[in-house]
Amino acid sequence: MKNNSTTKKVIIAIVGLAAILLPVFSSDPYILHIAIAILIWSMLALGIRIVLVSGHLNIAQASFMGFGAYASGALAMKLGWSFWICLPLAGVIAAILAIIVGLPTLRIKGAYFVIITLGLSEVSRRIWMMWDSLFGGPQGLLGIPPPDAIKLGGLAIMFNSKVHYFYLAFVLFVITVFVMWRFEKSRTGLLLKSFPKADMLAESSGVYIMKYKVAAFALGAFFAGLAGSFWAHYFTYCSPWDFTLMASFYMLMYVVMGGTGSIAGPIVGSAVMLTLDELLRPFKEYMPMILGVILILVLRFMPGGIISIPGLIRDAVMRKE
Amino acid sequence: MNQKNPILELSGVTKYFGGLAAVNDVSLSVSEGEIVGIIGPNGAGKTTVFNLVSSVYKLTHGTVKFNNEDITNLKPHRVAAKGLVRTFQANVLFKDFTVLENILVGCQLQVETSMFMDLFNFRTVRAQREKIHAVADNIMEFVGLKNYRDELAQNLAHGHQRMLGIGIAMASHPQLIMLDEPVSGMNNEEKSEMMTLIRKIRDRGITVLLVEHDMRVVMGLCDRVAVLNFGTKIAEGVPEEIQNNASVIEAYLGADD
Q1: How far, in Å, are A149, A151, A152, A158 from residue A155 at the CA level?
Q2: Strand A237-238 vs strand A141-142: parallel, antiparallel, or unpaired?
Q3: Domain limits at A166?
Q4: Mean pLDDT across chain A, nearest whole number?
Q5: Degrees (nearest 5) of the Cα angle B148, B152, B157?
Q6: Domain tally for chain A?
Q7: Total structural domains in chain B?
Q8: Is A173 inside a domain boundary?
Q9: pLDDT tens, A270-310?
Q10: How far is B4 from chain A (nearest CA, A)?
Q11: Taking a contact as any Cβ pair under 8 Å apart, which residues of chain A between 174 and 193 contact chain B?
Q12: Domain co-membership, B180 together with B57
C-alpha cells in the first residue's frame, strides 16, 4: 500500500518535471501545440469525469467551454477588458450557467439528463450562430486579443511564443488537477460516489444530494470555462464550429479510454488519444473509424481504461507464477 | 403509558396511489424512549407508512409531527436533520464502499465545514475529520462491526449487512430510528443479536419504531404494537392485547365463514 503510493508520487514527479522541461528539449511549435492541446483537453475531460462520478453523463462539456470562450472573447473585444480578468470570469460564467441548468435537471436520473445536455449543446450553438452582434454569427469572433504581457520586475512574459502559452496552460492544468484531487479526496468525493449506488440511503442520512451534484457539475463547467477562455485567446479566434457535440464526444472518449476510476484516467486518455490523432494524421479521413475500433476494443478488453494496463499486466504475471 | 412526551405523532395519514388507498387515515403516537412495532399482513401498508414519515412519498392527507413540529412532506434530508432516520428493507447499502465509508456517509449531519473549506487542509478540516472518524469508530463498535472496518459491505454476511444498515442510521445521532424489517432473512442466533442491539439502541435514549413480520421478535421487543390491514389501523395495544385481539387474528388467519 505504502509502496504503491510512493511509486505514484515518483511517477507524478517525473511526468510533471518532464512536462515543465518540455520547452527546453523542444521549442518546435508543433510539439508545443500538441502539448498545450493535451493540457487543455485534460481539463475538459476531468470536468466530465467528476460529474460522471456522481452518476450523470454530461455531453455538453464543449458548450461550457464555448460559453467560456465567447464570454472571454466578447468581454475582451467589446469592452477591452484584460485577459486576466476575462479568464476567471469565463470560468465563473460557465459555472453559473451549469448551476442554472443543473438545478432543475440533475434531479433527473439516467438517460434524461444526457438528453438535456444534448439539447443544451444544440441550443448553445444556435445562440452563437444567431446572435450576430455579440457573438459574430457563423464566422465567430475574429481578432480576440492575446493575453496582456505579465511584467515581473525586469522579466516580461509577452505571449508572443508558444512556450509562454504552454506554461500558462500548464498552470491552469495544475490548478485543475489540484482542485479535482482535493475535491474527490474530501468527504464530497465519497458522497458523490455514493449517489449512483443508493441515493435514497444517502438522502435519508441527511445528505442534500442536489447540493453536491450541482457543485460537481459547476466545478466541471468552471474549468471548462477556463479552458475555453484560454483556447479563444490562444487562437485569437472562436466560432460555433469549435464547440460542437462532436467535441464533447471526443472529451468523453478521452475519459472512457483513459479510465473513469481515477483522476489520472482522463489525463492519460487525452495524452494518448491526442498523440495518436497526430501520428495517424496521414489517415485523417479514416480517423473516426480507427478511433471507433480502438474504443470498442478498450471497452471490451479493459473496461478500466488505459490506466488499468499496469494492473492487468501485474495480474497476468502473478497468475503465471 | 402516554404520560411521556409524544415524540412522533401521525394523524390521519393517508396515501393514495391512483385510486388505491395504500394507507388510509392512520393515526399513531410514539412516546419518547418506546419501542413500537407496526405489524400486518403483506401489502398492509407498513413500509408505506415509513416512506411517508421519512418523506420518500408525499402524503395525500394527514400530518406528521416530530417533537411537536410539523414535518409533513419535508424533504427527506431535512427530516433526517431533525433527528428522524430510517433503515431500508432490503440490504440497501453502499455495496462497494468499505464498512467505514458506509458509516462515514451516515455521519454527514455532524459535519460543520463547507464543501469549499474541505478543499484545503485547514486545521479545522483535519480536526473535523478526526472527530467524524471517532464517531464512526464508536458506531462500528456499537453495532459490532469494528473488526470489519475495511471490508467491503458486499462481502459481509447477511446479518452483518443489516447491522451496518442500522449503523449508518445511528451515525447521524438520531432521536428516533425507524427499522424496516430488521430481522428478515436472519437465523435465530442473528435474530437474538439484533434484538439485543435494538434494546441497546433504546437504552441510549433513542426511540425505536419498527416494521416486522417475525411475531416472536415483535412480541418480545415492543412496548406497544399497532396492526395494519389493507392500509387501515385495526388494532393497537401492548403485545398481549394484540395476541388476543379477534380482528387481528382474523386479518392474519382469515375469517370463519
Answers
A1: 10, 6, 5, 10
A2: antiparallel
A3: 28-242
A4: 89
A5: 65
A6: 1
A7: 2
A8: yes
A9: 999 999 888 888 888 888 888 888 888 888 888 888 888 88
A10: 27
A11: 179, 182-183, 186-188, 190-191, 193
A12: yes
A155-192: pLDDT as tens digits: 777 777 888 889 899 999 999 999 999 999 888 999 99
Same domain, B160 and B179: no
Q: In this structure, which amino acid lies at residue B232?
A: T
Does residue B5 sit in the same domain as residue B77?
yes
Best of B74, B119, B120, B179 to disrupt the A interface (most A CBs within 10 Å) is B119
- Positions of E strands within A182-300: 237-238
Which member of A179, A198, A208 has the closest CB to residue B77?
Answer: A208
- Name the CA dihedral angle for B107, B109, B110, B114, rounded to a multiple of 10 degrees: 110
**Which member of B105, B125, B132 has the closest CB to residue A207?**
B105
Distance CA B248, CA B241 (A): 10
What is the H or E stretch that residue B229 is in? strand B224-229
For residue range B47-95, list pLDDT tens digits in order. 899 999 998 899 999 999 999 999 998 999 999 999 999 998 877 899 9
Residue B41: give the domain boundaries.
Answer: 1-83+174-257
Are residues B33 and B107 located together in one domain of the fold? no
Which ipTM value was assigned to this complex? Answer: 0.86
- Decide: A54 and A214 in contact? Cβ < 8 Å: no
How many contacts does A have with B, using Cβ atoms within 8 A?
A: 84
Residue whose grid cell is 517525473: A14
How many CB atoms within 10 Å of residue B78? 15
pTM: 0.89
Domain boundary at B156, B173, B190, which? B173
Site of grid cell 518546435: A28
| A5, pLDDT greater than 80 | no
Is A118 a domain residue? yes
Check whether residue B118 and residue B244 sit in a common domain.
no
Rounded CA separation A192/A187 (Å): 9
| Chain B residues contacting A via beta carbons under 8 Å | 54, 56, 75-77, 79-81, 85-86, 88, 92-97, 101, 104-106, 108-109, 111, 115, 118-120, 125, 132, 168-169, 171-172
- Residue A210 in contact with partner chain B when CB distance is under 8 A: no
The one-character DSSP state at A145 is P
> Tens of pLDDT along A246-259?
999 999 999 999 99
CATH number of the domain that residue B157 is part of: 3.40.50.300
**Spatial separation of the C-alpha atoms in residues A130 and A138, rounded to whole Å:** 8
CA distance A69 to A242: 10
CA diameter of chain B: 73
Last residue of a domain, one of B115, B143, B173: B173
Q: Are residues B104 and B77 in the same domain?
A: no
Regarding whether B248 and B144 lie in a shared domain, the answer is no
Cell digits of residue B213: 413480520
- Does a structural domain hold residue A17? no
- Give the pLDDT band of residue A1 (cuts 50, 70, 90): very low
pLDDT in tens, A90-141: 999 999 999 999 998 898 877 888 999 999 999 999 999 999 888 888 888 9
Whether A8 is in a domain gets the answer no
